[in-house]
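Example 4.3 (complexes with small molecules)
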Amino acid sequence: MHLPNYKEARSFDKKDYQVRTFQLDPVYQNKFQGKTCYLKTYGCQMNEHDSENIKAILEEMGFTFIERYQDADLILLNTCSIRENAHNKAFGMLGRIKHLKESRPSILVGMCGCMAQEEVVTNKILKDYPWMNFVIGTHNFYDLPRVLCQSLDTNSLQVEVYSREQDFVEDMPVDRVSHYKAYVNIIYGCDKFCTYCIVPYTRGRQRSRKKEDILKEVVDLKKEGYLEVTLLGQNVNAYGKDLYDDYSMAELLEDVAKTGIPRIRFMTSHPWDFSDKMIEVIAKYPNIMPSIHLPVQSGSNAILKKMGRRYTREEYLTLFHKMKEQIPHCVISTDIIVGFPGETEEDFKDTLSLVQECRYDNAFSFIYSKRVGTPAEKLKDDVTKKEKEKRLYQLNDELNQFFLENNQKLVGKVLMVLAEGKSPKKKDQYFGYSETNKLVNFKSNQEVTGKIVPVLIEDAKTWSLDGTLCE
Ligand code: 5AD
Ligand code: SF4
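Answer. The structure with iron/sulfur cluster bound is encoded below.
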């Protein structure tokens, strides 16, 4: 039994991480032949990608995957901690599973992902959910076969969560959701410790994967026919800082571009680490997509300071405009939190005026959610729920106008679209994403799935574009 401990998670001692290769112990190979698994993923791309690894490990153990949890022999929830509603969804699901387990006690029920790393969550599970079979953390999910079997052998709840990062495990099996687009981890964890954010506790300290391993993965993906990679990390711009003296995100992006893979994206970027060299490289290589996610969080200097974001509104805007000027056709999206403790009407107006200046192409907006164990938890929160909801509504109203306005400018233009599949509803209708990450629904009487094709844009909506394949 290993339980999470935030004090340990917060500690700053530098560690040299070893690299190991994943190998499934032959005793687990096909041990569960004929058994079924329901895997539910909550949260971000990092979790989605972990689930691609988890699925492949379970497949090697013999599991097949099904869509209905009611019929599964193993139910695994890959959870997210970022906001209260992610918690509520997972606990709501556990409530439903409890009833199922009462009628079918043989089903195995496990939790992995970010919630597993939270002290409050594991304590609650030990107290109120003793009928569960296992909980495994983000740092050791590759150990799932052992933990799962241990819970079966001992017929007891196993909690195996490490607060500190473990060694890198390379060559993990992976069952990717898409055959055209792939996630590639480049950096794990985060050292920024924004005051509202749980991620440094659930995902650990910042540590970069070796450049050789990343480049090999991209080259292999290209050979397999993948057309797009998304370089993943909580803060990709910090890539290399913990590992190299003279190799950073800019150099990595350039080396990935030189592999010739047709499309490269990356997320997420903290404005603090976005270097001029990165802007130069993005502008220089046409296979690095001109679409950048640059979370601002707030337009008020007072709130940015309380959030521990390390930049001012003015610094953010300078960076924003530099990108727009230097990267051809650059499209920028963002994340914004409203109702942070102490946010006044004036502070909120500053966020609105920043949005009016940036006229974002896309944005994710959230009401602040208090996370246990973060520094912001201690701040007095004097903004009422009603006021927070009003601000979110007002902000979204503003944002949506700009999404539509930007999309309307594309009508009549031809965009290159990576077609991902056919629309389930309409005949001869496909969907895919443009270089600037716009969702495009388009007509085509040729089969274009898995190809990058030119599409004439004919209509614009707030969140998507409509068009026709150019013959
Ligand atoms: N409350 C609300 N939103 C949050 N985010 C992160 N932590 C919180 C929180 N405690 C948002 C930020 C981040 C995005 C992934 O989620 O905007 O960029
Ligand atoms: Fe959620 Fe953050 Fe964990 Fe992703 S890393 S699953 S956003 S808490």
